[in-house]
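Box 4.2: Ligand-aware structure prediction
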Amino acid sequence: MITRTENYNLRSRNTFGMDVSCALFVEYDSAGDLAQLDWEALPKPILHVGGGSNLLFTGDFPGTVLHSAIRYVKFVDMGLDDVLMTVGAGVVFDEFVQRACDASLWGAENLSLIPGEVGACAVQNVGAYGAEFKDIVSGVVCFDTHTGDKTVFKQPECAYGYRDSIFKRPENKGRYIVTSVLFRLSRRRGPRLEYGGLKAAVEAAGGPVTPLSVREAVLGIRRAKLPDPAETGSAGSFFKNPVLDRERFSRILSAAEGQEVPHYDLPGGMVKVPAAWLIEQCGFKGCRRGGAGVWPKQPLVLVNASGSARPDEIVALKDEIVAVVRARFGVTLEPEVVIV
Ligand SMILES: Cc1cc2nc3c(=O)[nH]c(=O)nc-3n(C[C@H](O)[C@H](O)[C@H](O)COP(=O)(O)OP(=O)(O)OC[C@H]3O[C@@H](n4cnc5c(N)ncnc54)[C@H](O)[C@@H]3O)c2cc1C
């Protein structure tokens, strides 16, 4: 079924809580509906949204916003260790994680409580606590808006990287709409606890280590650190962690004036530096600029601090952070959030 609403307010459709609207909002609940749509007649441009938790609308959207209400979860037992789960793109990602953990399946538990819907998470290759979407996906089913056909991408064809995939390439922008995802989970894989205090949290809870107990530990850590989208508007990490060559990393070392600089060595001699550390060093942690602010417990997260921040206030704070970090460390932070 397809539902259409003109002049639709998007405030409840973006976790930043921006009070903006679109010319037309279209929701559908099957892949077949997409083939039936009169694409030519839709106001342009066209934007597909999920939970709106990785978007910053900078004003009213003049075109069509599409949203999937394809919400099914199916288990296919492969015998032995593996279980496949086919999940509709409109399923809330954390509901899928909960279902997998409830079924004692390993693989998704570290990704607990990441906001958003399954379709967008396939585009974004979401990650947390040493796990990424790419580790558990077997295939991504899409509607190709250029040909009107169903296209299935096997995991290697998705070209997953850090918050990146083939679906984000400029030449594919807006082309593929994810309609469902095939996950491969395991009865035996076992826990990955080496990141972000997860091991200590699981041990502190006591009892057997299960997908559900790891999920509970992740929920506790995330709730303590990140704003709850129901209470404080944000889009999670606003910037990507910069990946630098040795020369640019040494500029940071000299600007840090003897302080220890947290970093991760990557293959090929590159170095990843936490953007949160760079932002904190520039004094932005917990700052307020009008309605916008930086979350006091995690400086990578820009927030709608007043609850009624305007898009231009968030954009101005973003620009200020980029300029100050660039002036001090010679690094240009890039948004992880999609700015519309
Ligand atoms: C408090 C908070 C914490 C967060 N923590 C994390 C974290 O730990 N790790 C992490 O990786 N991310 C995190 N995020 C970011 C966010 O959860 C992810 O980027 C998530 O994948 C966004 O999903 P969404 O459904 O809200 O997508 P949206 O924001 O609605 O859209 C994101 C992008 O996907 C496209 N898109 C949406 N649906 C489809 C579809 N069906 N087909 C094709 N394209 C589509 C959109 O056009 C857009 O380009 C966090 C966000 C918040 C608010």
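In the box above, the bound molecule is flavin-adenine dinucleotide. Residues 311-329 form the longest helix (19 residues).
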